[in-house]
What we know:
Keywords: Amino-acid biosynthesis, Branched-chain amino acid biosynthesis, Cytoplasm, Leucine biosynthesis, Magnesium, Manganese, Metal-binding, NAD, Oxidoreductase. This protein is an alpha/beta fold. The protein is built from twelve helices and 14 strands.
Amino acid sequence: MPKNETTLKFSVLAGDYIGPEVMRSALRVLEKVAAQEGLKLDYSEHAVGGCAIDAHGTALPEATLTACEAADAILFGSVGGPKWESLPPKEQPERAALLPLRKHFTLFANIRPGLLYPELREASPLKNERIPEGIDIVCIRELTGGIYFGQPKRTTLLNGGTDVESVDTMIYRKSEIERITEVAITAARSRKRRLCSVDKANVLETSVLWRKTVSDYVAANAPDIELSHMLVDNAAMQLVRDPGQFDVFVTENMFGDILSDEMAVICGSLGMLSSASLGARKNTLGLPYGLYEPAGGTAPDIAGKGIANPCAQILSGALMLRYSFGLEDAATRIERAVREVVASGTRTGDIAFGRTAVGTEQMTEKILGAL
Length: 371
Ligand SMILES: NC(=O)C1=CN([C@@H]2O[C@H](COP(=O)(O)OP(=O)(O)OC[C@H]3O[C@@H](n4cnc5c(N)ncnc54)[C@H](O)[C@@H]3O)[C@@H](O)[C@H]2O)C=CC1
Ligand SMILES: CC(C)CC(=O)C(=O)O
Ligand SMILES: [Mg+2]
């Protein structure tokens, strides 16, 4: 019986290698939930990344951007891989499609839930006594600033070409740090009200500003939040030593990129880690416009074999329902279905750990069955 008249208008950008494989699974799950909830899906698929370079000569075609502009959210796969690594760096899919997309829509807040179900503890490389109840951490990563975007960014030949110099620039403004701190405060308030800010304030000017800004902002706006600070090298170590000490952590772009992959593997696999990238922009429903993507990449080593774990992409679809369409119940149902299937022992190879592994298709069928 239809419960809802909402139309979900989103753009699907599957990308390269395993991108289209796991995107198929996510779309099947969304179709089923939509049918059950009486929602109307209005999505269209568009070229992005290496496959867009092959088909259209550019990683982010104008038509793709126009379609994203007209939608309420973007469901993204992942882009890049060996096929395009010999292109000039600026033309490669990651730098020519994904980063510009994030910048274009000012998606400055990347929310990555690091969740290890207790039933999946065996898939974590951590000793199980360190994670008696699994893991439940949220990484809030600044996504449109820092060293990935700062100018100058260049490579120059020196000494008549006998040497080469490359420069990347890390820049942060107080206003950029304040707005990501606000997102982190909101996340912490919905959980244990504990926030750890990760930086490198013993060396980097941007981190000195980061630490002072986060401290001042929390003191002025969120005295209910228990704030701590940690240097990033220590944070990398503490994450594997005792992940239970973290609840929400907030950090700049590159540190968050690295720490979230670490968080993914202690949570079993990159194939389980979803993400939401949000900004100030609202969609036509008055809700946050967002881009939803797995935290991992295109996994060229397993592409085309039908063995990729679809969970991160499916869970990214759930985050899209939650944040951009306000469908908390539907999002939770998808998350429960994934958990139920994984907990019952159906596992793709990356999380199988001694069990018989199923492929992408069978994993998806099981999740559909649990919905
Ligand atoms: N958002 C994006 O579009 C991203 C793109 N990339 C790009 O992806 C390409 C490959 O990057 P890598 O460093 O190899 O990282 P990756 O994240 O693609 O893979 C790292 C390891 O995790 C495994 N893995 C990742 N997702 C999986 C899944 N769903 N199921 C099972 N196993 C999974 C892979 O098989 C691989 O062994 C590069 O071109 C990179 O730039 C990387 C990260 C994010
Ligand atoms: C192009 C990269 C910055 C993508 C990535 O590694 C990520 O977003 O985690
Ligand atoms: Mg990454």
